[in-house]
Amino acid sequence: MPTNRNDNSKPSDLKITDMRISVVGHGGWRWPIIKLYTNQDIVGIGEVRDGASAKYALSLKSRILRENPCDID
Question: What's the average model confidence in pLDDT over 41-59?
Answer without folding.
Answer: 87
